[in-house]
Amino acid sequence: MEAPNWAQKFDSFLDQAEDNEDKAEWQSCLKDLQEALNICDTRPIPDKEQRRQQVLMKMGGLYRRFGRYDEAVVYLNGALDADSHVTALKRAAILGELGVLYRHKNDFFRAREVFSEQYLLAKETALVAEAEMCRAVGNEAYATSQIEERIARAQALQDRLAGGDTDEKLRRRYAQAARRWETIGLDRLSLCLIAAHNFDEAVKRTQEAMTKQKGMDPTVTALSRFFHGNALWCAGQQQAAEGVWNSTTGVCSPAMGLCKEPSSEHADYLELLADAGIDFDVYDEQGFSALDYAVLSRNQTATAANKDAERMIDIIDRSLRKTLAADHERQMPQSTPQDAIQAVEAEVRQRHRQANVRRYYRNLLQEHLRPQLKNSLQYSHDCVRMLRQQYASYLDADIGRRQVFDWLYYVPYDDFRTLGHMPQPAERSVDSSRRLATRMDTSRAGGTSSADEDIFLVFFSYRWIGHNMPDDGANTQYSRMLNAVEALIFQRGLTAEHVGLWLDIACIDQEDVESRERGIDSLPMAVLQCDVMISLEDDEYYNRAWCAVEVRLMQELIGAYHKHERWSHRLLSGESTADGLLERSQEHSEVPITSLSVTVKGDLPKIDFLMRQSKLLGGP
Where are the TPR repeats (predicted)? Predict the structure, then answer.
């Protein structure tokens, strides 16, 4: 078998990362960069220092876009130190990213120092130097002459790149960047023009920036829309400004663009949008709102950037309350003022909860569980057991996480079989000594195996076929589950006492509202921690949104890591009993979100988000 060409794999991941960067698919870009960094850290490849430096620089820029500035600083400083023979131009590029970061952190003195060094390093005649000088001169200050120089350099760079004698790799790397730098320069120039009361010219320049947005990063486009609206607003054209600032669902709005990278400057701009009555209650092409982005950027440290994020969240909350109060009054005109206030506050709390859920999803799936799955490809350890331990440790470490996710529970198969019917909410064991669902024990006191080390866990994916209940009066689903598990035990050579079941009705608290929310939000994590999934398929199964999400998650896991299994249980044709055929399922079908049905309409954004996360969970 031919040994892998790790340098070639590295280049492939880096190319994919740059493609995803061009499309503003930041999560996919991060995934590719993590793969490339893993190769640098674990495999023998040529030019390791330079390659590692390249990845660390890109990751620093990416974490800046996520609003996670402290982590971005670590990556960029790591990039500066990664290669002892770093060229002046490469150092200039890293300093440019670091300077932008310091500016977002409100550390303007250090930002100016870094930009000055970047400009001095970039004073060379090569094309790459011209590109870095273009960025540096616009970064260093907001003086009109410097910004105009940046615009001129960006335009000249585009003309040079359009010539036929430019290297294709350089053209690909800098063509869109040069257009982006020109756009940002035009937007910044508008601030100088407004300060000089030259409002008409500010409108003209921002309008010019708006015409250059084809194929641009949605965040850059959103910020250009802000600056154009700002110029219109200052020129006395408030109605036109509001038209530019307001967004429809599916587009990154100016408010979202500002919230992606918190700073005192961006907080001031967001305040202007709120005062203008701009609707913040919209979602972009990723299914995120302005509140989601602000919460994603927040951390627990008392940094200036975090204070800016908190301020932006407060601004959004005030705006949301106004919007939601107006909606409530329109929909329920007979409601008392006290009832209206309570309804609005409950909705705001729910928005915050969902924003926090998304924040933790991204952190847990992409930065904790996915690396564990990647390691399983190289080592022969029991991946699923390790995932259970990783998840339990993740919750143990932070009370905030336990307020979002629930522990992993399961129903011992022997108890399920003895019960004689589908569990009811808060069902207890047959002898009533304990709750039917048992919390998975992953502790290893003194290095010994945990109490549940040998549990083979089955995730049941099925439709609720009763009236707001999982089963009908004939116990159809319960009987199918028994039939499926017995077939699995026979085919896999399992022992019944070591089989556990994950059932939503039993493993998610159906009575306490907050516990139920935690259980529902933990469902994707339960899929990861089960050895197999059994789908009780029927004619309506694939039309149910939650069933589709469960299947997609398992398909991605199987396709990427080969550590899980999915089985399908289909009723035998013409039979009225629950007897069916249990088969290993290998298909990988795409199910469009628009064709799926949900019991709760508000679940659709969550379904869409999880579908996207499932793609990122998988990997090459």
Answer: 53-86
Domain of 450, in residue numbers: 403-617
Q: What is the pLDDT of residues 537-575, one digit of tens each?
A: 998 898 888 898 899 889 888 888 888 999 999 998 755
Contact between 10 and 32 under an 8 Å Cβ cutoff? The reply is no
> What's at 91, amino acid-wise?
R
Give the model's pLDDT for residue 449. Answer: 52
Give the model's pLDDT for residue 128.
56
CA distances from 157 to 142, 170, 287, 421 (A): 21, 11, 35, 72
**pLDDT value of residue 560:** 83
Q: Is residue 183 part of a domain?
A: no
CA angle 269–274–275, rounded 5-degree value: 95
User: What span, in angstroms and rounded, lies between the C-alpha atoms of 552 and 387?
Assistant: 19
Torsion of CA 201, 202, 205, 210, to 10 degrees: -140
Q: Outline where 141-248 has alpha helix (H).
A: 144-162, 168-195, 199-210, 218-234, 238-245
CA 138-142-148 angle, 5° bins: 55
Pairing assessment for the beta strands 532-536 and 456-461 based on DSSP bridges: parallel
Residues in the chain, pLDDT under 70: 1-3, 122-145, 164-170, 172-173, 300-305, 378-381, 426-434, 443-451, 574-576, 586-596, 598-602, 616, 618-620
**How many residues are present in the chain?**
620
Angle at 134 between CA 152 and CA 122, to 5 degrees: 140
Q: What is the pLDDT of residue 141?
A: 45
Reading the block at residue 284, the tokens are: 């972009």
Running DSSP on this structure, what letter comes out for residue 286? T
Asked whether residue 336 is assigned to any structural domain, the reply reads no
CB 618 within 8 A of CB 562: no
3-state secondary structure of 116: helix
Q: What is the CA radius of gyration of the chain?
A: 27
Residue 460 has, within 13 A of its CA and on its CB side, a CA count of: 30
DSSP state of 126: S
Q: What is the pLDDT of residue 120?
A: 74
Provide CB contacts within 8 A for 326, sequence distance 6+. Answer: none
The tens digit of pLDDT for each residue in 307-361 reads 898 999 999 999 999 999 998 889 988 889 899 999 999 999 989 998 998 888 8
Q: How many domains does the chain have?
A: 1
Selection from 207, 282, 296 nearest residue 252 by Cα: 282
Is residue 170 situated within a structural domain? no
User: Does residue 564 belong to any structural domain of this protein?
Assistant: yes
Listing DSSP states for 336-396 in one string gives -HHHHHHHHHHHHHHHHHHHHHHHHHHHHIIIIIHHHHHHHTTS-S-HHHHHHHHHHHHHH
Burial class (CB in 10 A: 0-12, 13-18, 19+), 45: middle
- Going from the C-alpha of 130 to that of each of 61, 101, 150, the distances in angstroms are 20, 21, 11
